[in-house]
């Protein structure tokens, strides 16, 4: 018989009574981010007094809570010796410069060649409390977006970074090539984002049913028909920068979802020209400020070189 997955247990103290179950467990810092806690609850892996309950259940003093941790990586996910461009690493944190084309999490159609496979090879044994299917990946970048990505090496670091992201104290900076130019040299896009009502792979600005989303931007350099823009997302919605810039009338160059095909993308760039350039946060152990930057990948450098050559 296979070994039982590891379990965690808590008894609710009087001062924690009246808190939602998902918030109670997230605050414990042993099960990862709130979204990971939600998945465990949704999978029936959390019981209160021996019963499976919903994430919004209010806990009471004396409640006994048990959580069954994920015990295995999904079938089909194997360690792979995928090279990683490491920007920073210590005993609790890893930061990489993700190349375009690398899928972050395994999913149907992408079981192999993912960042999780690379991490499984780098760390054959996951730290206690980390979901083996995610291995401490704190946030995500789309497959064809490059740049800085953080991975926690302990459950405590993952919980702390999750709190920073939820509290919006993490500062993220992206650079993008966009078609056209925003009307103003700098500004704020404050438009809610939700799932597209018809095309389910897309997100869209939604007046009703959307979640609050806010992105600051500034024009860095202008070319003929194209601009280099920096974007500073203050929230973390799916495809946020891509959707917001498209809503501004300036979709990202070569974006297959939000920009119509146009001839002659600069330098022949074949993926959305978006790069996570920098991230600033507090170190999860020491609290010291950390600022990490990822140099532009070759395809974006080639695109900029082609644009500057045309302008010269």
Instruction: Report the sheet-strand fraction.
Output: 25-35%
Give the N-terminus to C-terminus distance in angstroms. 70 Å
SSE run? EHHEEEEEHEHEEEEEEHEEH
Instruction: Supply the number of helical segments.
Output: 6
Describe this structure in words.
With 312 residues, this protein is of the alpha+beta class. Helix content is 19%, strand content 27%. It is built from six helices and 15 strands. Strands 5, 6, 7, 8, 9, 12, 13, 14 and 15 form a nine-stranded mixed sheet that branches. Strands 1-4-2-3 form a four-stranded antiparallel sheet. Strand 2 and strand 3 form a beta hairpin. The longest helix has 14 residues. The protein starts with 6 loop residues before the first strand and ends with a helix. The mean pLDDT is 90.
């Amino acid at each position: 018989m296979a070994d039982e997955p590891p379990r965690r247990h808590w008894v609710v103290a009087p001062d924690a009574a009246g808190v939602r179950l998902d918030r109670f467990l997230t605050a414990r810092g042993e099960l990862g981010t709130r979204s990971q806690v939600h998945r465990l609850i949704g999978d029936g892996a959390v019981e209160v007094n021996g019963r499976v309950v919903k994430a919004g259940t209010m806990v009471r003093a004396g409640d006994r809570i048990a959580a069954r941790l994920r015990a295995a990586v999904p079938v089909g996910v194997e360690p792979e010796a995928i090279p990683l461009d490491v920007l920073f690493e210590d005993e609790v944190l890893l930061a990489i410069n993700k190349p375009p084309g690398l899928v972050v999490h395994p999913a149907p159609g992408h079981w192999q060649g993912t960042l999780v496979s690379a991490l499984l090879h780098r760390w054959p044994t996951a730290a206690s409390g980390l979901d083996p299917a995610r291995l401490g990946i704190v946030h995500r970048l789309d497959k064809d977006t490059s740049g800085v990505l953080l991975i926690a090496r302990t459950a405590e670091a993952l919980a702390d970074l999750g709190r920073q992201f939820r509290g919006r104290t993490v500062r993220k900076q992206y650079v993008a090539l966009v078609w056209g130019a925003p009307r103003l040299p700098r500004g704020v896009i404050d438009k809610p984002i939700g799932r597209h009502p018809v095309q389910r792979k897309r997100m869209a600005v939604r007046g009703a049913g959307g979640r609050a989303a806010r992105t600051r931007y500034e024009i860095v350099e202008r070319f003929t028909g194209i601009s280099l823009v920096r974007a500073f997302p203050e929230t973390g919605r799916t495809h946020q920068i891509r959707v917001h810039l498209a809503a501004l009338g300036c979709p990202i160059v070569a974006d297959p979802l939000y920009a119509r095909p146009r001839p002659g993308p600069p330098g022949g760039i074949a993926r959305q020209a978006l790069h996570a350039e920098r991230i600033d946060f507090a170190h999860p152990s020491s609290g010291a400020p950390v600022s990490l930057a990822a140099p532009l990948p070759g395809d974006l450098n080639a695109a900029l070189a082609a644009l500057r050559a045309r302008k010269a």
